[in-house]
Amino acid sequence: MSRGVDTVARAYKEYMDGLFPSPSVKSLEEKYGHRWRKENTETVYYGRRLPLYCVFEKLLVEKKWDKDAFITRLECLMQKAGSLRRLCDRSKKVLKVLKDETKAGITATAPDILVTLEREII
User: Fold this and answer.
1) Per-residue pLDDT reduced to its tens digit, 74-96
2) CB-based burial of residue 88 (10 Å sphere; 0-12 exposed, 13-18 middle, 19+ buried)?
3) Long-range contact list for 105-112, CB < 8 A, 24+ apart?
4) Which residue blocks in 6-109 are alpha helix, DSSP H?
5) Which of 9, 39, 46, 63 meets the CB 3.0–4.6 Å disulfide criterion with 110?
6) CA-CA distance, 40 to 93, in Å (whole number)?
7) Do 90 and 119 form a contact (C-beta atoms < 8 A)?
8) pTM over 0.85
9) Angstrom distance (rounded) from CA 94 to CA 40
10) Domain spans of the chain?
């Protein structure tokens, strides 16, 4: 995983498409599970970005949101949060809320997820 990823757009590209010459993080996870993260530093970086990757999956894959609009919105949230890492940290809290709501039988829409993330950042 690249240490130079500092925007939502690059994090998305690294996760979904891969950054040359590396394959995508998603494909590595699907093919090898945790085994591709042999070094502790890779596990730490993956763990930090995992909440953001989950937001990508939830909104772009499951909810079929427009990628460009979504990335632009998350870039704005990242600016408010102060860094990609802080956005990832806030995403973790939002995913916990969504998990709790799902257990309670509440289905969140894509805008609900982003509004919850915005509230967490502001």
Assistant:
1) 899 899 999 999 999 888 887 77
2) buried
3) 109/63, 110/59, 110/63, 110/65
4) 8-16, 25-32, 40-56, 67-81, 84-103
5) 63
6) 23
7) no
8) no
9) 26
10) 8-121
For residue 79, give both structure tokens: 């600016």
Q: Are 114 and 91 in contact (CB under 8 A)?
A: no
- Report residue 11 CA to chain centroid gap: 8
For residues 60 and 47, what is the distance between their CA atoms, to the nearest angstrom?
20
36 DSSP 8-state letter: G
pLDDT digits (tens, 9 = 90+) for 91-103: 888 777 777 766 6
